[in-house]
Design brief:
Order of helices and strands of chain A: HHEEHHHHHHHHHHHHHHHHH
Strand order of the largest sheet of chain B: 1-2
Number of domains of chain B: 1
Strand order of the largest sheet of chain A: 1-2
Order of helices and strands of chain B: HHHEEHHHHHHHHHHHHHHHHH
Shape of chain B: globular
Strand content of chain A: under 5%
Radius of gyration of chain A: 21 Å
Largest sheet of chain B: 2 strands, antiparallel
Distance between the termini of chain A: 33 Å
Helix content of chain A: over 70%
Number of strands of chain B: 2
Oligomer: heterodimer
Shape of chain A: globular
Distance between the termini of chain B: 9 Å
Strand content of chain B: under 5%
Structural class of chain A: mainly alpha
Number of helices of chain B: 20
Structural class of chain B: mainly alpha
Number of domains of chain A: 1
């Protein structure tokens, strides 16, 4: 890769976006008052979101090169650089992160009552690490952000979570750590081959086949645990169920994306041969994840577990789209990642709102609250429809593209996926039906308060994106189109001329 | 000329003068406070002297003593470690009141040993400074007071001393072989003359025996068994001292000895690989079931000694620099943990994991120190533990030790569990008996905590400062200096 053709700005915009939450966290240590702390965090995350907007305006969608590049030698002895840059895929994920953060702060406004300062610091440190992961173009910088994120997330689950929080936190930590240590070994091995830790430098090197397979295996273990793909998903329900609302939202919206992002950033361009060798198995695992996640979600009576298992299914669509290795599949996969961030994040916030009111997440206990909280039911209804990929909502576009890509790849495969779509409708309607119209024989619900202004503000932006992406996906597809085509080239796949046109 | 020699020897002179002052103070009654203040002043003065002498280069005492970038950087590390340990020994209730000034004196003497050690390039000076550094520590262990239910300190001290003396003997025995083979006591000359015969069994036996003595100090399997017992039996502060300073000293000497081996010496590499694997697995697996925090840290020390050997296995300058960088980082991390143990401890008693429960309410600063120290030990970025492991893995992998590297990362993943147990108690749990007393921290503890946290983060984020300096000077360790005189 050559130097970027466009210098988008003279300002180190990415560094500013990455590190301003950390500065805000340092500021938060000096604030003693809880109310002030909440406002401080809300304002700083909002400022970060505003700061990240120029990335969208100044991004040049016509090139696949990394933009907003920054590069400084960090550890010259080891050839590690502080190297940042974004392409169309990471741009969307960065913006998703900065969008979700203020909403998470709002969602924790009343939920978090103890140790507010530590919580807010954890949130801000998380934001730095999450954005850093999507911007890093040096493998070690990537790894540093990737691992550093574990600490605040584990603390968030372990301190502010539900009854089995300690178990969930430790399980989450060990699973992720166990996967990522092999990632580190793979990165070092690549460095010894290429002579530097630059991710771009690692791409397109035509490594020996055996080497590629091993590196891919290490990548796979790490990313598959993060996604999580089917046999590695067991940490997810525990972590999701026990985490506080903001933790669940961050897990679903951002952390899971890091796994699929890893596949896109590392596996496809660095080990194309191995990707082709392993793709059939990964496709099989993806289909299993879609069906398994769906069926398991259907059987849940805990709302959070239901949404958590639906995540397994949705992420199955994302990995399916990635490994069919064609343009519509990949674009669909990226859109599924974004959509899942928006929709599942919103659903977790909704479950959090129910929990704040009823102090339970049991589906039976929450039955029939629709009559008393109409505004809430409206939001919930839209997000449920979006989650089951109802036409007109965001998820439809993503899943349609993935299915189109999968159809082009293999019809048999697609036949197995289709039931997954139907199950999604089944479990989502089951939940919506019970919660919104499930009878009024729960007298305790008569006194329920509908959403207040803060809560509406929390959900409204996500609602906007549900319909924006659902009805007019063009801007989102446009920014990643060049990147996706380039990625396919790197993955050694001929771009099919008749890539499915957008609806 | 004489001024520059004086400056080159300044840190040692400051410490020696300080030793005399402390000796004078031990002669009177109830001089704990003056001794502590004097120690603090000496530590600060030594740091200052080390900074002044940082760029000094000299060859002293008939080439037995070499002052170069390598030695001066490590002297600075030891001086900082000295300051940390003096700050750590604030209200050490568990040392008999009448001998507390002596505690400071012995600590000072031990430090003189370490500072001399890093400059010694003659095996006679090397052995003398090694003994000077370790003998006072044997005494520190025995200085824990006796009381109800606490009688293990004498056993620990005896164990520590008997095995320590034994290990020294073995090392001397190994050195005698090396001397016999080469006919010189000067390390650089010896290394040169060993090259033609390095693959003979005698040379390997000599090197192996010499290393065995050092492995004892570093607590490498199978020379590890004293570690948990001594940590448990000695007072919390003493355990902190034993866990930190001698490890750095041991790695320094190991680097000097191992650099005698050829870069492609399979026997030495295999030996080190085996010991590294055994140490990592043994330390980590046994640490999983410990309840006493000091014992847990003791077993984790064994595992970390194993990680450190990864750098030596590489048998090149980069590997040695990685090992030294890691052990310097380890000094900060382990002192952070022991600081918290010392302060949480009630009346100097040992601390069980459960005693840490609710620490976040009792003292946020201590909790932060402990959590950061523990995550750093677990190897999570951006702390020094991660950067250290990363350089070690890179060094070992660049020499093709793939299996060893994979075993090391598996161990890193295993170790996470017991480190998380500490975090769980300190940060997740509330103490069972309602509102526990808040731990009041004096200024010296606060300073110590902040310094350690800053060190752990700064070393992790900016590793080049240390690695570059060490790597450039390690590479010419084996080269005999042309005398500057």
């Amino acid at each position: 890769m050559t130097a970027p053709s466009t210098i988008n700005t003279g300002l180190p915009l990415l560094s500013v976006v990455i590190f301003s939450p950390l500065v805000a966290a340092a500021g938060a240590t000096l604030i003693g008052h809880e109310r002030l702390l909440r406002w401080w965090t809300l304002v700083s995350t909002t400022v970060v979101a505003v700061l990240s907007l120029p990335l969208w305006w100044r991004f040049n969608p016509d090139t696949a090169a990394f933009q907003f590049r920054e590069q400084v030698a960090w550890i010259p002895f080891l050839k590690v650089d502080y190297s940042l840059g974004i392409d169309g895929i990471s741009l969307l994920l960065v913006l998703l992160t900065t969008l979700i953060m203020p909403l998470c702060v709002l969602a924790s406004w009343r939920y978090i009552t103890s140790r507010v300062k530590e919580f807010m610091i954890c949130m801000l440190v998380m934001e730095t690490a999450m954005i850093g992961v999507f911007c890093a173009l040096d493998a070690i910088l990537f790894f540093v952000f990737w691992e550093a994120m574990l600490i605040p997330m584990a603390l968030m689950i372990g301190v502010w979570g539900g009854p089995r929080r300690v178990y969930a936190a430790i399980k989450f930590f060990i699973y992720t750590m166990a996967g990522s240590v092999f990632l580190l070994v793979a990165l070092i091995a690549l460095r010894l081959k290429t002579g530097s830790f630059s991710i771009e430098g690692m791409m397109g090197q035509n490594y020996p086949a055996g080497f590629q397979l091993w590196v891919f295996a290490a990548f796979f273990l790490s990313f598959a645990i993060k996604v999580p793909m089917f046999p590695f998903h067991t940490w997810l329900p525990a972590a999701h169920v026990e985490a506080p609302t903001a933790g669940s939202v961050l897990l679903a919206s951002v952390l899971l994306k890091m796994g699929t992002y890893g596949f896109l950033r590392f596996c496809l361009p660095i080990t194309p041969h191995a990707t082709h060798v392993f793709a059939p198995y990964l496709l099989a695992l993806s289909v299993i994840a879609i069906l398994y996640g769906g069926f398991t979600a259907l059987a849940q009576s805990d709302l959070k577990k239901l949404v958590a298992y639906s995540s397994v299914g949705h992420m199955g669509f994302a990995t399916l789209g990635i490994f069919v290795l064609n343009a519509s599949g990949l674009e669909g996969a990226v859109l599924v990642m974004i959509n899942h961030g928006v929709t599942t994040g919103a659903l977790f916030i909704c479950v959090g709102l129910i929990y704040e009111r009823l102090h339970t997440r049991e589906l039976g206990e929450a039955a029939g609250i629709g009559k008393f909280v109409p505004v809430f039911s409206g939001f919930l209804g839209v997000f449920c429809l979006s989650s089951l990929a109802f036409p007109g909502t965001n998820s439809f576009i993503g899943e349609f593209l993935v299915l189109a890509g999968s159809f082009a790849h293999s019809k048999t495969l697609t036949v197995f996926v289709v039931p997954g779509v139907i199950i999604a409708a089944a479990y989502m309607f089951r939940m919506l039906q019970r919660v919104a119209w499930g009878g009024t024989n729960n007298p305790a619900h008569t006194g329920l308060k509908d959403l207040e202004f803060r809560e509406v503000v929390t959900l409204a932006p996500l609602l906007v994106f549900v319909f924006w992406i659902g009805l007019h996906p063009q801007p989102f597809v446009r920014v990643m189109h060049a990147t996706v085509l380039h990625l396919l080239q790197q993955a050694g796949q001929v771009i099919p001329p008749a890539a499915v046109a957008l609806p | 000329m004489s001024l520059s020699l004086f400056i080159a020897f300044l840190p040692e002179l400051v410490l020696l003068a300080g030793g005399l002052v402390l000796f004078y103070l031990t002669l009177g009654e109830s001089r704990t406070r003056p001794a502590r203040i004097a120690s603090l002043l000496i530590a600060v003065a030594t740091i200052g002297a080390c900074v002044v002498a940082l760029r000094a280069e000299a060859q002293l005492f008939y080439d037995a003593y070499r002052v170069d970038g390598f030695s001066q950087l490590l002297k600075l590390v030891f001086a900082a470690g000295y300051l940390f340990t003096v700050l750590l020994c604030r209200d050490f209730d568990d040392i008999r009141a009448d001998i507390r000034p002596e505690f400071y004196l012995f600590l000072n003497l031990s430090l003189i040993g370490f500072v001399l050690l890093v400059s010694s390039v003659d095996i006679i000076t090397l052995v003398v400074s090694l003994e000077l550094s370790s003998f006072p520590l044997f005494l520190l262990v025995a200085m824990r007071r006796e009381r109800e239910g606490q009688k293990s300190q004498m056993e620990s001290a005896m164990k520590f001393m008997m095995f320590g003396v034994g290990a020294n003997g073995i090392m001397l025995f190994g050195l005698s072989y090396l001397f016999g083979l080469t006919g010189t006591t000067s390390l650089p000359l010896m290394i040169q003359k060993l090259q033609p015969v390095i693959d003979t069994p005698l040379a390997i036996a000599g090197l192996g025996l010499t290393m065995a003595g050092l492995f004892y100090k570093l607590a490498v399997f199978p020379f590890h068994f004293w570690t948990p017992d001594v940590y448990q039996g000695s007072s919390n502060e003493t355990a902190g001292i034993i866990a930190s300073l001698p490890k750095v000293g041991a790695v320094v000497v190991l680097v000097r000895v191992v650099s005698a081996a050829k870069p492609d010496s399979h026997t030495i590499a295999q030996l080190l690989t085996f010991l590294a694997i055994a140490s990592m697995f043994y330390g980590n697996l046994v640490a999983l079931i410990q309840r006493d925090v000091k014992r847990l840290l003791g077993f984790s020390t064994i595992a970390h000694a194993g990680y450190t050997l990864l750098g030596l296995v590489a048998l090149d300058a980069f590997g040695y620099a990685a090992a030294l960088y890691y052990i310097i980082g380890y000094l900060f991390m382990v002192l952070a943990c022991f600081t918290v143990v010392s302060r949480v401890s009630h009346d100097g008693a040992n601390v069980a994991l459960e005693d840490l429960a609710g620490l976040h309410k009792r003292s946020p600063l201590l909790t932060a120190t402990l959590v950061i120290g523990v995550f750093a030990l677990a190897g999570i970025p951006p702390f020094v533990g991660f950067m250290g492991k990363f350089t070690l893995l890179t060094a070992a992998l660049s020499k093709g030790h793939l299996a060893l590297v994979i075993i090391a990362v598996i161990n890193a993943a295993i170790a996470v569990y017991y480190y998380l147990r500490i975090v769980r108690e300190a940060f997740f749990r509330d103490s069972p008996d309602g509102a526990p007393p808040v731990i009041a921290l004096d200024w010296s503890t606060r300073v110590l905590c902040v310094l350690l946290i800053a060190g752990i983060i700064a070393l992790g984020v900016m590793p080049s400062v240390i690695i570059d300096t060490i790597a450039s000077s390690v590479s010419n360790l084996a080269v005999p200096l042309i005398a500057g005189r």
